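User: Hey, quick favor. My workstation is busy. Could you predict this chain's structure for me?
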Amino acid sequence: MSLERLGNQLHLPSLSIKGFRGIDALTIDRLGRVTLIAGKNSVGKTTVLDAIQVYAARGHYDILSQLLTSRQEVSIATVEEVHGQRKFVPDFPALFHGRDVSRCARIAIGPKGYTDQLRIEESLLDEEELASQIEKNLSRYVAKGYTQTFRVVFQDTEQILPWILPIQGSDAARTVERYSVSACLYLFQLLVRAKWPSPIGCQFLGPGLLSDEEIVRSWNAIALTEDEDRAVQALRLIFGNDLERVAVRRDEISDTEHVQRVVARLRGQARPVPLQSLGDGALHLSGVALALTNSRDGFLLIDEAENGIHHSVQRDYWRMVFETAQANNVQVLATTHSFDCLCGFAQAMTDCEEVDGALVRLERKNGTLRAVEYSERNIKAAAKQRIDIEMR
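Assistant: No problem, here it is.
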């Protein structure tokens, strides 16, 4: 389907990633309202989702930090604001392909073409305004050979990361050689007056399941709305009409303590049962449905979309994703290495002709990552005839 026919402009109609983590360069010419990225384990599917999350946040320091610390990628830093003490901070070099932060290193993420791409690039200390900021607080360190830092650039906005790299031969560089970790200066004061561009809403789901608190919070946000009806219908993909109602229940423990749970009433059951007790499939389905309703006008990223979903309901599952993404103006990008998931996606795409879908397979050949994009015609043929879209 053409984007003009859809009437809603996508945040990312295409995607270009350069120099980010395990991706040297990757271009996907067309993304859809719902895009499924297939490929074998460790090919780079999750890294694509990470890149989109960084783009949606406009490279905000918090997202970069969360991404790195969640993977235990940290540096040993001298933090001047705490009297020169050393502590662990996000290891920003790990953002760059091959951890290469040599001169002219750059990350670029966004639609094809230079316009509106997010960049993380080198910023030399000989720039007058930047040099004055850093030398005011770190003059004695700069004198020892710290001459390189990095900034986040989006459109007409630039922000300096609070991270200053050592040059080869400096005291910190020798620390790197000795301890096999990154060592750097870290100047939090660079963030005090930082002004970041407005982000695009973005929710990342999987491969784990939502917690009790997340489910309760999300369900309360959609109570008594059409979105609640969609979430219930998603659960009925597993339980059918045996699922009668879903609600948030508050159980008082004492005058000051209580527990909130999302519970389901099933036909033939005398008492409601907690949603958490209904199995991973129910939790994943409800999690995706809730995430779709809470990602209105933004991105929803689903890692390992097939988790917990039986092959017999894949088609209905993806139809729910297509229809809700269209209704809520959400751009969905999901990953899989399951052929059943891929078939269900293709079948749902034929059912939802008014919604733009895209299928991409990532593969590495001779160390180079490339995207194999399938036409709408090929996807529909695969759905009708179960043609094997190569997953190896």
